[in-house]
Amino acid sequence: MADYSILYSYFEHINKQPLTPEEMAEIHRVFRKNTYKKKTMVMKAGEANTLHYYIEKGLLRMYIIDQNGKEFNILFARERQWIGDLGTPAETPYFIETVEDSIVYSISEENFHTLYKRYIALANYIRKSYVFLQKRFVSILSKTAEENYEELVNDYPGLLQRLPQYQISSYLGVTPVFLSKILAKRAKKD
Amino acid sequence: MADYSILYSYFEHINKQPLTPEEMAEIHRVFRKNTYKKKTMVMKAGEANTLHYYIEKGLLRMYIIDQNGKEFNILFARERQWIGDLGTPAETPYFIETVEDSIVYSISEENFHTLYKRYIALANYIRKSYVFLQKRFVSILSKTAEENYEELVNDYPGLLQRLPQYQISSYLGVTPVFLSKILAKRAKKD
DNA sequence: GAAAAAAAATAAACTAGTTTAAGAAAAATA
DNA sequence: TATTTTTCTTAAACTAGTTTATTTTTTTTC
Question: How far is the CA of B104 from the C1' of D16 (A)?
Fold first, then answer.
């Protein structure tokens, strides 16, 4: 039987106390554990009733494809983070794909909603996500791509090393060519 | 005594049933009603423990001033909408100012948190805000200013009429000069 | 470990959006 | 209603970032 201990420990963490056997059983029942190879599509634009994903291991990205076929990374999520379209159950415009081989737990919106009535701290994940997105939004709106790249390097040096450059440029909202230019300029300085 | 009926009707709406007298009393106790003249600053960057605001009448904007002193509008909120920094109680980087004469109810984070344990639907305001911001983020990231302006016109024609043009340009993340150019181009087409 | 495929770098011509400045129009105030 | 202040427009020179194309480097696969 699959090992759910990472998931239990997350709930114990947000719950701030050990789980009862019944709570464990419920969690085991409402989440499904899956393993995906690198570059596997986990969620697809156009789907409704999409799932929420909690990551045990690996790295995933959520992205959108615009009217010109260009991809924009909305979010990266790694170990012990959530990823999913909070707009569910409405039809999602986003894709989610693994960047590395990954192990994730998935849960339906219905069950997720039930859980966050019980674990109010879970509602905090949404709030934290909002604050994070708002900060990023302001950065994209008000700063140059070069400044945004510096911010990434400072805040998430470990994450950058796990991503190909063109995925980073897509997260910054610039072309790979332009990011390459920024890096060349940076390299000269040192 | 101040009239809180608009606020009560909001809670009845999210609660999906009439409020008890006790609930009304609690709401009356935790919210404070205020009237502000146009262009009054309601929240200031640098403050901690900022409040959440529910608007009965008028129009407010939340904005940030970047390192070059330039303003960027993050959010407009009007009748029957919330505005505030969800990052509270941390020190806020944002300002909130009235765009029109306004009547607002304010509530502390502590009381707000208590309420959203009771009215789970209130947590939904945060979630909806997230979905809204994500959509806007994608637009700013992937579309031209002209396309973003068209989107605004389609989605919020009434709101635009209540805002000076330079406030709209700041919301779109472009200079007033550039928005004026877009409008001139648009006017020619018709 | 050679071959193929994917990712990154470089260059040149281009475009969306900025900056500065000056004048025109609209709104607020005396 | 005249005056002052605020907002909007227009224009010209500029810059951040794009596009397309070619080459080099790195990674994957057989």
Answer: 41
Say if the Cβ atoms of B72 and A142 lie within 8 Å: yes
Q: Which fold is adopted by the domain B5-122?
A: Jelly Rolls (2.60.120)
Does the N-terminal peptide bond of residue A89 adopt cis geometry, omega within 30 degrees of 0? Answer: yes
The Cα–Cα gap between A74 and A62 comes to: 6
- For every one of its 190 residues, what pLDDT tens digit does chain A have, with 9 covering 90 and above? 789 999 999 999 999 999 999 999 999 999 999 999 999 999 999 999 999 999 999 999 999 999 889 999 999 999 999 999 999 999 999 999 999 999 999 999 999 999 988 888 888 889 999 999 999 999 999 999 999 999 999 999 999 999 999 999 999 999 999 999 999 999 876 6
Half-sphere exposure of A114 toward its Cβ, with a 13 Å CA cutoff? 10
Q: Which of B64, B130, B140 faces A126 most closely, judged by CB atoms? A: B130
Output the pTM of the full model. 0.93
3-state secondary structure of B6: helix
Q: What angle do CA B142, A41, A103 make, to 5 degrees?
A: 120
- Asked if A138's CB is within 8 angstroms of B74's CB, the reply is yes
